[in-house]
Amino acid sequence: MERGPGLFAGKTQRKKIFTLTFNLNSQFMIREKTVGIITFKYEGRGIRYLLLHHGGSYWNFPKGRQEGLETELDSALRELSEETGITKVNIIEGFKDDYDYDFDTDIKSGVREKIYKKAVFFLGEVLDDKIKISDEHIDYGWFDYETALKRLFYQEGQDSLKKAHQFLLKKEDFVL
Questions:
Q1: Using an 8 Å Cβ cutoff, are 18 and 31 in contact?
Q2: What is d(CA 71, CA 59) in angstroms, rounded to the nearest whole number?
Q3: Does residue 140 lie within any of the structural domains?
Q4: Structural domain span for residue 81
Q5: The dihedral of CA 69, 113, 116, 78: what is its sign?
Q6: Each residue of 3-61: pLDDT tens digit?
Q7: Is 176 inside a domain boundary?
């Protein structure tokens, strides 16, 4: 694993795009979309995947909210750049994965908010793997498939990595 150099400043202002709904259980339901890129590089005969460390045991792919009228891919590329400093990535044609997830936020004014998100991921190869992480993260790493699978915090992220890895193996027609 290659380790990151630490924290860097440079947080930007973001416009939040979401839908707000109120259900019968006195609960706000907020719907958001997050987009990202399962980022990889070839290293010898192997593939390494980039994961960002958010703290604790939470590691995930570079991703973030879709803003304004951006396309999903434009948002994913912007987030990759903001979170890692990577601006040159080869998006792999034919791969796109998504999943839905939800979580509760704090109770505000006696009302609990539930966030529903759709996560959308593209697959991208980097040639220049110099990383400058944002202040949203505490570290990063380039991991082989098995290690990345173990590091990913949520099952949905693990499933996306499995799909991406199988896609690459079939596309490249090689065995690691």
A1: yes
A2: 25
A3: yes
A4: 2-171
A5: positive
A6: 443 333 333 444 444 444 444 454 556 678 899 999 999 998 899 999 999 999 999 99
A7: no
